[in-house]
Amino acid sequence: MAATSDATVDPTDGATRRDAVEWRPSRGKVGVASLIAMESFFFGTFIVAFLFYIGKDVHGPTGATALDVGPVIVWSICLLSSSATVVAAVKALARGAKAAFEFWMGATLLLGGAFVYGTAVEWRGLMLDHELFISTNLFGSTYYGLVGFHAFHVVLGLLALGMIWTLSKLGHLRAVDAEKVELVSWYWHFVDVVWIFVFTSVYLFGTGIL
Amino acid sequence: MTTLPTTPAETVADRRAEPLSARLHLWAITVDHKRLGIMYVLSGLVFFLVGGLEASAMRAQLARPGNDLVSPEVFNQLFTMHGTTMVFLVGMPVLLGMGNYLIPLMIGARDMAFPRLNAFGFWLFLFGGLLLYYSYIGAQGLYGTSAAPDVGWFAYAPLTDRTFSRGNSTDYWILGIMVSGFGSIATGANLVATILCMRCRGMTLMRMPLMAWMMLVVGVLVLTALGPLTAAQVMLLFDRNLGAHFFDPQEGGSAILWQHFFWFFGHPEVYILILPAFGFVSEIVPTFSRKVIFGYPLMVAATVGIGFISLSVWAHHMFAVGLGPVLDAFFSAMTFMIAVPTGIKIFNWIGTMWGGRIRFASPMLFATGFVAMFVIGGLTGIMLAMVPFDWQVSDSYFVVGHFHYVLFGGTIFAIFGALHYWYPKAVGRMLNETIAKWSFWLLFAGFNLTFFPMHISGLLGMPRRIYTFQPDRGLELWNLLSTAGVPLQAAGVLLIVWNLLRSHRKGAIAGNDPWDAWTLEWATTSPPPEHNFDEPPTVGSRRPLWDLKHPEDPDGRYE
Amino acid sequence: MTVLAVGAVAAPVAAAATQTADATSSEICDPTSGLPLPSIPSMFEPASPPAADIEALTWLLLGICAAIFVVVQAALVHAIVKYRAGRAAVDRDGVPGEPRQVYGSNPVELAWTVIPIVIVFVLAMTSVRLIRDIERTSPPEGALAVTVIGHQWWWEYRYPELGIVTANELVVPANRPVWLELHSADVNHSWWVPQLSGKKDCIPGHTNVLWFEAERPGVFLGQCAEYCGTQHANMLLRVEARDDAGFDAWVRGQQSPPASDDDEEVLRGREVFLALACQACHDIAGVSEGAFGPNLTHLMSRSTIGAGVAPLDRDTLRQWIDDPQTLKPGCNMPSLELDDAQLDAVVAYLATLR
Ligand code: HEA
Ligand code: HEA
Ligand code: CUA
Ligand SMILES: [Cu+2]
Fold first, then answer.
1. Is residue A1 part of a domain?
2. Are B3 and A41 within 8 A, CB to CB?
3. Is residue A78 part of a domain?
4. Is the ipTM above a cut-off of 0.90?
5. Which pTM value belongs to this model?
């Protein structure tokens, strides 16, 4: 393979046959994937702590006595279905359908908001009826730590999605931004997937159902 | 096919023409990976001096038994701050900063993937470090104010509980590390994205310089290791400030869980600290041996292998905890395994030197010193992985000896080698070789004088983290020798600092490629222009500049 | 670089070992226990099966690592010397410019992958076997059970079968296995007497076990090996292994209440002890029931004070009670600021606790 120091030589010239196709992943995607990888380990650590401490409390209340799975299932359905609506929104944006995009994004916001509301209601009940605080016992510490961080991430996601929705309403969002919106939707999917793990740990293992 | 730009860069003199305030302003607002890299390295070096000063105070105190140069409280703060500083504020930033400076140049990119995130990461690191050091002024401890953290660099629970660590010095430790940790995470993600997405034409993964491979693995390790550390620190913060009980044995919490979390981070962390060093050496050794790196594919495989194995050995720091025979055996076996890929690297470097024509310029001196010293540290690491032996020497000075051989003899030697190697690129001027050689030999002698005797005092029963030691236990001589090495090291360090400062003005002009090297960074000017390459380069092999210099025998043919 | 070869490890260690041997043979005895004075607490002077096993292993490990060290450094030095520019045959291959470029070699690389794998495999197997041999999960036959509780910065020892509670100095029979149950009352500590066994951590909320069997009467030293706060450095360990008669005598002494003394000063000292906060922290059988500090019932049967910071005699005792912070700065016993008369009295009283 001939090498040359002449910068003017056309780089696609014959000798580069091996490199004819030069594919590089999108840096946005790799960046968000990295963030998600890091966050997975962050949540993993909280989940490990939660599972490790099931049954180690010296006094109640515990998951088995204080948690009510019924309503949580409803709120979980809201959150999980918002993964579908956000996909619909991204698709709509990619094909330039502004109205459809705003509809599906709005639905995502509502569903996510409903989930956060659900968490708030649950926490209120735990604090008022069961006197469970982060300082009460191990269950309190691990439960509020894990569920709280998850809810915090949902709120962050909602803020990001809400900003996108507002930009769209103001007419500042174009089809070329679809990739950026898609990246935010990845994050939203991630928050959903984490919830599946949180739900299994807290509401199935933590309550003794499993 | 290798095409290279010829760049008429702004000259050093151009920059000096501007007023100081304007120049500083440019540094403060920069998002240029080269400036950020330099700022990382400089801040890291300043922290190195501070950490070294703390170490010197410890060694002075331990010069003889029953010394009362510093009080027990101060001593405990010294080793905590020394360890924390060296790991989080010296090792990480200098290595990540080098990566920052070099990776885009080496892979022919214009900048990092996310320049603004890059700047954000740097300032987080710096402010995290300053926050940690503010504790010397602002923190409240058990014995009043001005209390730096004193819980050791791994801050074992429950010593960190409110009950045993009153005041807020431990909170400074948590927050300082957490903030600078966010910076590292940002940089880690940036490195991964840069290496995967920003390579120039023709640079396939298997054509990257080895250093880029090592930085890629480091980026991944940063992403996996810092999440758990941050989570554990958040839990500790909750324990201390919101009354949670994550690590509170009174309420059924586990002191051992913290150790698992910390070392799940801590062990990959030590590879985060050594892999970039391996990267530097993998660049320096071929250049000065005038030979291509021996066994590139196996080196890549070994790097990736180290990355994986390093995630499953963490409990070798916990053999004395009483995990039970099964876990002890598992982690012991996993730890031994890591000797294989590490050995491959050592042998491949020697293989590269073999049959070469070695020039012992200062970078090569440090790189050779690295290989020789790291082997010692690695072998004592292997001894420590032998569980029953570790039961004797865990938490003794033998361990202190081990990790200084890998951290100083390894990481720091490699960093100094890298500084000498790339300084001409970054500054445009050569370092003075005579001073460089003096500093190497002073450091080499002082380093061995300080740290070799530690193995012996450890074997003779000296635990670590003690502010004073018992007379008549055969420890006096070894401690005195350890202390005696420090002035030599300090002299070596000061010489390096002086050399860096003076060559900035007085060094010989370097030119683009002073070492006659083969990777892309040497193709642009020294210092490189803001946009690195006038035209994006195209490479046809692992050693684009070799191809240029030896058109009759290009590299790609053998890959 | 080979100057640093392994010989350097072996020599000083051996020197230390000889020094140790001298100390033991010179038959100077401990005034309190009558036992030979403590030797250097080196793991190379084992006096108990686990420590002996580890010592043998250590030489093996040192040997293997020394061999690897020599091979690797020899190769490195050879490369440095032979292939140095100027010295090396510049045109070995007849080419004046660069040396021959060698990109790798499969057989060579395979060799230096496989050989370490074999070595590492052997090491791992050795490790697994020795872990099983040394680490017991149930007490050896006929073992004496002792519960060890680490405190910031002293040791509590309880002999559940003998009804004895004491502090800082562990007295055991020689030639009989001892089974320790390790606990902590506050933070992590680690029990480490190198001549008897490897170390094991004392962790709050987690029980560890450790065994040893002193093969000869003697005093064995060590110290806390897990950083536990301000006075970690002065949380020393002292184990006295006595022959059967000596141990039985000690047990009888510990089991009987301290002899009462009608001396006026002593009685006053006892009053002071009870009137001040002392009784809130210290247990003296039949007198006070504090549990925060060391049990003082048979204080004077010990030879050191403050977990080994100083030899125990009337002077140090007085200094300690006057202000323990002068002997052990940062320790958890406050100075109660006794006046001279009170001090004399309390010391006189404590001195009767044999
Ligand atoms: C740069 C950092 C670094 C590196 C690279 C290493 C590398 C290794 N370390 Fe080290 N280690 C630390 C930093 C590092 N360590 C620190 C900071 C601590 C203490 C933390 C604290 O407590 O504060 C520590 C503590 C530590 C312990 C715990 C000790 C204790 O507290 O009880 C152990 C135990 O297994 C250990 C083992 C190893 C091993 C097996 C390697 C291996 O990776 C080494 C592999 C290298 C070689 C083996 C040499 C080259 C190989 C050959 C020449 C091939 C032939 C060899 C064989 C076949 C054996 N280390
Ligand atoms: C990269 C990591 C690194 C490096 C480079 C060093 C470097 C040194 N370390 Fe470090 N050390 C650690 C990482 C490191 N250490 C860690 C992680 C611990 C564990 C902490 C813990 O237990 O929690 C530790 C613990 C540790 C101990 C054990 C403390 C104890 O257990 O009680 C000791 C004791 O001697 C020691 C000594 C030294 C010395 C003498 C140096 C020397 O090499 C330093 C040389 C540098 C200098 C001598 C500086 C010279 C500069 C000047 C004199 C100029 C000053 C001027 C200005 C500031 C303007 N270190
Ligand atoms: Cu107890 Cu250190
Ligand atoms: Cu490790």
1. no
2. no
3. yes
4. yes
5. 0.94
